[in-house]
Design a protein that fits this description.
Layout: H1 5-31, H2 38-59, H3 68-92, H4 97-104, H5 107-118, H6 125-141, H7 146-149, H8 154-173, H9 179-201, H10 217-242, H11 245-248, H12 255-267, H13 273-300
Length: about 300
């Protein structure tokens, strides 16, 4: 079942907003001092989302009741997002944002195939071509080399696989659950999953799970990760609620554009001329998808009655 063209176009707009905000979250995570373990960053990322969304959902009158089936789905969805985010935040400590995202962008291929198999969404040759062109541009931005990056390069690949599961479940659940409720409950499940290890290892000196008291820059980066993550994933949820996964998947390549800009402004990673060529290809593929959906929307609208 496909979405009406007007809803699809709005879904594309939300996806573009996600591509703008998501690299900001990555930059804040990367800027967090390394003395703060990654699981502690994850707690702030999800706990702040709970603190913002669940009261807001209650204030707007959305039901907070959860069936047993939905509770299980929230846990699976939260676990996929939790591990995916943890792997990506860990990768950011060893490589530039654009490097990690360029490797991550095998994800749209996985997502399109999952959308076709599990959701029955149509996938035409134009969408597949847009994905292929965008992926080619991503390879030009940062040429992933396993010989240079080693096992660290596998972390964004793991993120890609798990994030595909997260997006697929978001697409299925967003059709019947309000985005505020969906994101709030998933964030609560993720918080409950990651908090116990931090409490267990508190004071043990464990390099990966012993939390530290945030101070200085860490306070602001941790708060920023939570706020920006909340906003960006609301955009993503609305996008997946309104548009087929196969339609918005190519637009994810635009995220690497924001990552390149932020990487330069925040960390001094200046793109090479070949990188700018790749960025142009990524932007072109994204604009092609948007323009094609806009034309389909215009064709689907009934002609205006004569005056």
């Amino acid at each position: 079942m496909t979405s009406p063209p007007d809803r699809t176009t709005l879904g594309i707009v939300f996806m573009l907003a996600f591509c703008l905000f998501a690299p900001m979250m990555d930059a804040l995570a990367k800027a967090t001092p390394e003395v703060v373990p990654v699981p502690q960053i994850l707690v702030f990322r999800f706990a702040i989302q709970v603190a913002i969304l669940m009261p807001l959902a209650a204030l707007l009158g959305h039901s907070q009741r959860v069936t047993l089936r939905d509770a299980a789905l929230h846990l699976v969805r939260a676990a996929a997002l939790l591990v995916a985010t943890g792997m990506f935040f860990t990768a950011l400590r060893y490589m530039p944002i654009a490097d990690a995202i360029s490797i991550f962008f095998v994800e749209p291929f996985v997502l399109i195939l999952m959308g076709a198999v599990f959701l029955g969404e149509p996938v035409g040759w134009r969408r597949l071509t847009a994905c292929a062109v965008g992926f080619g541009g991503a390879l030009l931005v940062i040429r992933p080399s396993f010989s240079d990056l080693g096992l660290v390069a596998l972390l964004p690949l793991g993120t890609a696989a798990l994030f595909s599961v997260y997006m697929l479940m978001t697409r299925a659940m967003a059709r019947r659950l309000h985005p505020l409720v969906l994101q709030g409950h998933t964030a609560l499940a993720a918080t409950l999953l990651i908090l116990p290890p931090l409490l267990i290892f508190n004071g043990t000196g464990n390099l990966y799970f012993d939390p530290v008291w945030p101070a200085g820059r860490a306070v602001w980066t941790l708060l920023g990760v939570g706020v920006v993550a909340t906003i960006s994933h609301l955009f993503l949820t609305y996008a997946l609620r309104l548009a087929p996964a196969g339609t918005i998947a190519p637009l994810q390549y635009l995220e690497i554009v924001g990552a390149t800009v932020i990487g330069y402004l925040a960390f001094g990673d200046f793109p090479t001329p070949l990188t700018w060529v790749g960025i142009a290809i990524i932007v072109a593929s994204g604009l092609y998808v948007f323009e094609r959906e806009r034309r389909l929307e215009l064709r689907a609208k009934p002609p205006a009655p004569p005056v």
